[in-house]
User: What shape does this take?
Amino acid sequence: MDRSAVAQRHVEEDVGVVTDVARIGFASDAEDPSFAGHLREVRKCRAGKQVCLSFHIGCTDAALSLWESGARLPSQRSLRQILLALAQLGATTAELLTIRGAWFSETRRRSMNRVRPSSVNDVQS
Assistant: This one.
């Protein structure tokens, strides 16, 4: 089984399950551990310009720019397309799993920031 087939198998697994393997890092972890940072670093190494990767994903380069800046997170469907495109462009399994793990962490962090328990003062008002 070649690298892209292994990566595709990992991508096609249930995206709701995060394993310890998804926490594998690479050199850019020290610089920017965010989803946006990982995506940007892998894109630069594997696809070059944003327009090249956006073509392979099937989205606009503006959408990719928003994901790489951290302003937006891609949907699960878009994440799958990103990972498949990067796998086709030669990204390693470790790179793909790191992006996937960072996406899960960022999604969890953002959802926790949206849902805050009400305080006692809010209930009495």
